[in-house]
Amino acid sequence: MVWNLIKLKRKTGSIEPKKATGGKPSQLKGKEQELSAMVREYSDYTLEEYCEYWNEQTGVRVSASTMCRELQKITKDLSACWTIKKNFQE
User: Within 13 Å and on the Cβ side, how many CA atoms surround 22?
Assistant: First the structure.
């Protein structure tokens, strides 16, 4: 550990950590219009039902967590997803 820091200091002049490069992009990235249309048409669905519907329509299977994150991005309103999540748990 210490040797790595010494090497980093010699190489870069600093021991600051490297910036994160990011992870795997979402399977729903770029599908905002389709998701919005789905939510408008089926506003009473639970997260599980949204996931099932999405799988049937696109062949892409996503988790409830992934669906919730994307719906939060679309609505910009955290309460919308929490309402959906609450329905999911009932």
Answer: 3
Separation CA 45–CA 76 (nearest Å): 19
- Any alpha helices (H) in 1-90, and if so which ranges? 2-12, 32-41, 47-58, 64-75, 78-89
Distance CA 56, CA 85 (A): 20
The full set of domain ranges for the chain reads 31-90
pLDDT per position as a tens digit, 70-80: 988 887 754 55
C-alpha atoms less than 13 angstroms from C-alpha of 77 in its C-beta half-sphere: 5
Span 56-70, pLDDT tens digits:
999 999 999 999 989
Query: Rounded to whole angstroms, how far apart are CA atoms 12 and 59?
Result: 46
